[in-house]
Write a structure and sequence with these properties.
By secondary structure, this protein is α+β, with helices and mostly antiparallel strands. Helices cover 29% and strands 25% of the residues. It contains 9 helices and 15 strands. Helix 2 (18-32) packs antiparallel against helix 3. The termini are far apart.
Length: 381
């Protein structure tokens, strides 16, 4: 009985690409694998056909011979394209299908281009620099491709060789019972290459350490924890891969006058006892200059005044926040004899006025009295 055409078994055309052949094989192998079809001889026979067809068509040399000679006349016919026997377990199929995803199954995957690592650098700014934006120069420790060996790691005049242990694949296969396991080659560390004569400049690594000076533009409105991304300024890639990115993280130093909360700025404003009692104006600092804040008569300590638009404009746009001024009434210290006499006279007149001049104090005293009266009633009752 004539053998079935390999292309027909996999359901692909004779001009199918390697990727199309592999995709068809994965789909059919998962469908007809004996582990998923126990006690089904038809599925097992179909699976053997799929295995044999893929063993031939996935190898460019065998495929060329098959296209030219077919089944019977091809050199090594019979078992030359994988025989007809069942080979490998369900673990082989799993490895072949998911190896590319997890980095262990695809042949030569260790030789693929790899993106370089990202770098992070912290820059410390004043509040003014963070609010209005600035440009800073930073020195970033990094690694660069060795100019002597051009990244090969081999001494000039020599070149890396394929690893004799793994044949340049970067992985070695071990059969463990039903499963076939691939591991990183212990000889080359997964690179697939060995350097007989290392480059003296980079000691065979292909890279040298260096410091780069970069000018980084910090946009207005950033705050502690924000990051500025510099694309392509990270570690160089491997095997021709793209470089990583550099992330500049912002840390804002504490300010002697202002405390930032979101887009608002908070500021404490000391006010004399006379200004708080009689009212007046005090100069208040903002990040754009000084302004006058009107203090109403009888202002208490802790009173807050909001100055619209005197805060921080968000880094992503939008209206600026506010400046919130908290009044702190300052008790006078280091009094002269005459000042003490005047305050004592003031205190005497205020006592005669009673609740009218200090309603909060009298209200508090009433609360204390009521509290102790309740305690007495509970004890006597």
């Amino acid at each position: 009985m004539a053998k079935k055409d390999y292309y027909e078994i996999l359901g692909v055309s004779r001009t199918a690409s390697e990727a199309e052949i592999k995709k068809a094989y994965r789909r059919l192998a998962m469908k007809y694998h004996p582990d998923r079809n126990p006690d089904n001889p038809e599925a097992e026979a179909r699976f053997k056909e799929i295995q044999e067809a893929y063993a031939c068509l996935s190898d460019s040399r065998k495929r060329a011979a098959y296209d030219q000679f077919g089944h019977t006349e091809a050199p090594g016919a019979g078992g030359g394209f994988g025989g007809g026997g069942f080979r490998g377990g369900f673990g082989d199929i799993f490895e072949d299908i998911f190896g590319d995803i997890f980095g262990g199954g695809a042949r030569g995957s260790t030789r693929r281009a790899r993106r370089g690592s990202d770098l992070q650098f912290t820059v410390e700014l004043s509040l003014e620099e963070a609010v209005f934006g600035t440009e800073v120069k930073i020195r970033v420790p990094s690694k660069a491709v060795c100019e002597v060996c051009h990244g090969t790691g081999a001494a000039p005049g020599t070149a890396p060789e394929a690893c004799p242990t793994c044949g340049g694949v970067g992985q070695v296969r071990m059969q463990q019972g039903f499963f076939s396991v691939q591991q990183t080659c212990p000889h080359c560390g997964g690179s697939g290459r060995v350097v007989r004569e290392p480059c003296r400049a980079c000691r065979g690594s292909g890279y040298v350490r260096e410091e780069r000076t970069l000018a980084v533009r910090i946009p207005p409105g950033v705050d502690s924890g924000d990051r500025v991304r510099l694309a392509g300024e990270g570690e160089p890639g491997e095997n021709g891969g793209p470089p990583g990115d550099l992330y500049v993280q912002v840390r804002v130093r504490p300010h002697p006058l202002f405390h930032r909360e979101g887009n608002d700025l908070l500021c404490e404003v000391p006010v004399s006892i006379t200004t708080a009692a009689l009212g007046g104006e005090v100069e208040v600092p903002t990040l754009e200059g000084r302004v006058l804040l009107k203090i109403p008569e009888g202002t208490q300590s802790g009173k807050q005044f909001r100055m619209r638009g005197k805060g921080v404009r968000p880094v992503r746009g939008g209206p600026a926040g506010d400046l919130i001024c908290t009044v702190v009434v300052e008790t006078p210290v280091n009094l002269t004899r005459r000042q003490r006499e005047l305050l004592e006279e003031l205190d005497e007149t205020m006592r005669r006025g009673g609740r009218r001049h200090s309603p909060r104090a009298h209200g508090w005293l009433d609360g204390v009295k009521h509290f102790f009266d309740e305690i007495k009633q509970r004890i006597s009752g």
